[in-house]
């Protein structure tokens, strides 16, 4: 068995992970979803939300559990919410497209196939950036698993996703929210109003809201910044407004897609300055804390050795087969395995594997995520029950 170092952890798929949130919410609404070997409701949401006829799930991008605990004074509404299952695990890599697909399908990344922020398109010698994706490749084929929203609708529970209007019709939206209405929100107030409207519109409802700004602020300003703390206070106010308008027979779940940490100048490893790491590389994918390296044919073993030798303790480095064997992606469907690099590098500590020449924007950020440290993996699951639910 291939093992990770003790400071990196395997996500707890089927026990306490982001993949388990929507299946549990659906189960609380009477919709039991088959997930292969994974249990239908390992978080016990059927009991925790007992009697709820409508469930809203709010995902705050970048709201790591450690960050919530560290700033309880800034976010008193969040701090006061119950936590029925403790911290959950983000998936691997701990990055937004992977997490949103994991949430939307209720499956680990190895099953749904969205395996990174940027991944290789096998056989086409090009990369796919999942946040800039429109219709190539076809979202229905690239992520072919049925979503929880599709399955809820088929069972007679209307599903609505309230996310930024700018994301309506994107490839990622189509791939991970398929089956739900997507009205599009133009701000936090609009999102709040639309979530509450969708909850009240039908006798049963599954409603999901997505908020992006906290993550963006953390990337650009850092999580140890006045800007990030101010943004968290606004998020707390949004949750307060949702709680105030919650129908009596509804429940609200608040979660996140990953945590985040700041990367100081001293732990930025510049790949551009190490030619040995980029020689024989056909395509460099992933992101600074979770790299996928695709080798020119025949150079896979040599490239793996070089990455291991040069990076040393800065990252766990393994082959595709070794990474799959750790279980970090969950069971990996052979149809999507090639999207994972020939070499996988998961950053340790606060290291980031940057390449200012190839990726000037991502290489200049302050806050990062993507790897499997405790701070990146730990995400909250917070609940609030309507008045009639006790």
TrEMBL record:
<dbReference type="Pfam" id="PF01663">
    <property type="entry name" value="Phosphodiest"/>
</dbReference>
<dbReference type="GO" id="GO:0004528">
    <property type="term" value="F:phosphodiesterase I activity"/>
</dbReference>
<dbReference type="InterPro" id="IPR017850">
    <property type="entry name" value="Alkaline_phosphatase_core_sf"/>
</dbReference>
<protein>
    <submittedName>
        <fullName>Alkaline phosphodiesterase I / Nucleotide pyrophosphatase</fullName>
        <ecNumber>3.1.4.1</ecNumber>
        <ecNumber>3.6.1.9</ecNumber>
    </submittedName>
</protein>
<dbReference type="GO" id="GO:0047429">
    <property type="term" value="F:nucleoside triphosphate diphosphatase activity"/>
</dbReference>
<dbReference type="InterPro" id="IPR002591">
    <property type="entry name" value="Phosphodiest/P_Trfase"/>
</dbReference>
<keyword id="KW-0378">Hydrolase</keyword>
């Amino acid at each position: 068995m291939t093992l990770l170092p003790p400071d990196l952890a395997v996500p707890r798929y089927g026990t306490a992970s982001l993949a388990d949130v929507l299946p549990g919410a659906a189960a609380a609404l009477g919709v039991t979803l088959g997930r292969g070997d994974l249990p239908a409701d390992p978080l016990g949401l059927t009991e925790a939300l007992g009697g709820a006829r409508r469930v809203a799930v709010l995902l705050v991008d970048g709201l790591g559990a450690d960050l919530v605990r560290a700033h309880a004074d800034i976010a008193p509404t969040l701090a006061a919410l119950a936590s029925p299952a403790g911290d959950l695990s983000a998936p691997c890599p701990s990055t937004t497209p992977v997490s949103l697909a994991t949430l939307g399908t209720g499956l680990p990344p190895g099953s749904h196939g969205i395996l990174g922020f940027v991944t290789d398109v096998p056989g086409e010698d090009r990369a796919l950036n999942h946040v800039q994706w429109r219709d190539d490749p076809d979202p229905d084929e690239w992520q072919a698993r049925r979503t929880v929203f599709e399955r809820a609708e088929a069972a007679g529970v209307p599903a609505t996703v309230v996310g930024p209007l700018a994301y309506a019709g994107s490839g990622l939206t189509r791939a991970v929210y398929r089956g739900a209405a997507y009205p599009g929100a133009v701000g936090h107030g609009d999102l709040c109003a639309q979530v509450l409207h969708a909850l009240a519109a039908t006798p049963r409802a599954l409603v999901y809201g997505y908020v992006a700004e906290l993550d963006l602020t953390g990337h650009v300003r850092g999580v140890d910044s006045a800007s990030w703390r101010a943004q968290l206070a606004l998020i707390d106010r949004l949750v307060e407004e949702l709680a105030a308008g919650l129908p009596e027979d509804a429940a609200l779940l608040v979660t996140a897609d990953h945590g985040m940490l700041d990367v100081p100048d001293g732990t930025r490893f510049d790949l551009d300055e190490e030619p040995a790491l980029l020689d024989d590389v056909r395509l460099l994918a992933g992101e600074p804390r979770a790299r996928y390296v695709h080798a020119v044919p025949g150079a896979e073993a040599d490239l793996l050795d070089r990455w291991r030798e040069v990076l040393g303790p800065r990252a766990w480095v393994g082959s595709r087969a070794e990474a799959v064997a750790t279980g970090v992606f969950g069971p990996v469907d052979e149809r999507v395995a090639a999207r994972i690099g020939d070499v996988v590098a998961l950053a340790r500590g606060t290291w980031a594997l940057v390449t200012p020449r190839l990726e000037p924007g991502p290489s200049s950020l302050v806050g990062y995520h993507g790897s499997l440290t405790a701070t990146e993996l730990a995400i909250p699951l917070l609940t609030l029950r309507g008045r009639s639910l006790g």
